[in-house]
C-alpha cells in the first residue's frame, strides 16, 4: 500500500499514528504550518503545526459539541461569534439553529478557510451562507474591540501553543465577558484531562472568577489526545443544566442529542475534582 | 532517553505509540504472547498479543466501570464470577462491596496472574483476599458447567481474537444466562463503536434475544482504541436505570460516581443507533 505513517506526539511520550495515502497540500502560512492529508482511516485531515485539527470521519463530535449545548441553552442566540474555526465545522452546526440571525467567524489564518473549502467541503459547506460573515483577523483583537455585541461566543481554537496561546489567558475571558450582551454566554474547547489537567483547572478557575455560571462538559473524539475532550462554558445568566430535555429540539446530529445535553456535564470523578 | 517506542496498530491504518523505558518480562504462554513493559507516560503496562490490556495510570477507569454499575444495581450480589481479568483489577473493585461474599475468578492463563502480581501489585492487590477464589481454567467451560450459581458475572476478556473469541458468541451468553440465578445479571466489555460497530451491534442483539433487560454504557479509556469503550449488560430482572442515585454508595473511586451511574448509559446518537 502506498503512502506513509503520520505520527502526532500528543505528549513527549505518547502519540497516535495513522496511515496517510497522500499529502494534498502543505504550506507554512503566516501563522502556522498547514498540512492537508488524505488518511486511510479518517478521510481527509487538517493538521496545524503537526496537530490533528479535524478529520472527515470524526469531525462531527467536536463541531456538534461546541455548538449545540450552548445554542440550546441561550433562549435567543441572535448574534453569534466564532473565534477560530476556519474549517467551518462549528458554523455548519450553528446554521442548524434558525434563531441565529447572524454568525461572525473570525479566524486569523485565511489559508485554513481556503484549504478547508477545497479539501473538507462537507465541513466548510456553510461558510458562504448569507447569515455568515467571515473575517480574516486576529480573534483576540476582535474580542477586545467588541462591547455588548454578542449573545453567544464560541472559541474554536488550536492548542494553547502558537497563535492560540493568548486565547487561554484570563484577560481573554474578561474581554469575552465585555463583548457579550448582558445575558450572553460563551464556550471554549479546553483540551483533555489526562495530559492537560493543569490547563483545565486554570481555565475553569479563571472563568469562575468572571462568570456567575461556569460549567464543564466532555465528549469523545478519537483523534484528539486521550480521546476525552473538555469544553468550558461561562454564562452571565442561563445555565445549561436548567434546560428541560423535552424543550430541546431534536436536530439532525450524529453525536449530540437532547438526552446527552445533560449527561455530557456529568464528569468522571477525577475530572470533576479539577473544576471544583 | 533510553528505551524504544511501542506501537499498537488498533486497526490496519491507525494506532497508538508510546515510549517504553524497559521490558520487564516477555513470554509466549500456552495461550498468548505476554509482555510487561515500563512506559514513561502510563507506568507499567500489560500487553497480550501486542494489545494494551491495562496500564498503571488509566486502569482505574476500566476496572471501576466493569464492577460498579452492575454491583450497584443487583440488590444482593453475594456470589460473583469474573471470567478473565487475571490482572486482578476488577476483583479489587468488587472487594469494595461488602455484600459480595464470594468472588470466583477464572482466567485461562495463569501467567497473567503471576506477572500481574509481580509488576502490577496495586492492581492485583486483592487476588489473595479470603473472599476470592482464583481458578486457572477455561472460562467458557466454567460457564457451561455452572447452573444457577451466580448473582453477577463479569466478562473481562481480551479482544475477540485469540483465546477470547468464543466469549463473544451467542452460545456463551446463553451459557451465562443458565449460570446465573433467577434474578442474576452480567456485564461484558464489548470494544469500541468507532472501529468495531459491527461487533457491538451483534453482541447487543444476541444479549437482547436472551435477557429481558439489555443496556449499553460507555467510558473513556485513553489507551484503548478510540478512547471510547462500551460495556454490554444483560439482566434477568434488575435494571441499572431504575436505581435511585441517592441510594448508590459513594465508594472510593476515581472515575465512577453515583451521578455517572446514570450518565454513562446516555449514548451518543451514533452509538445508540447501534444498540436499538
TrEMBL record, chains A, B:
Species the sequence originates in: Ammoniphilus oxalaticus
Domain PABS residue range list: 3-236
Known partners and oligomeric status: Homodimer or homotetramer.
TM stretches of this protein: none
HAMAP family per UniProt: Spermidine_synth
GO-annotated biological processes: spermidine biosynthetic process
Protein's UniProt name: Polyamine aminopropyltransferase
GO MF entry, a single one: spermidine synthase activity
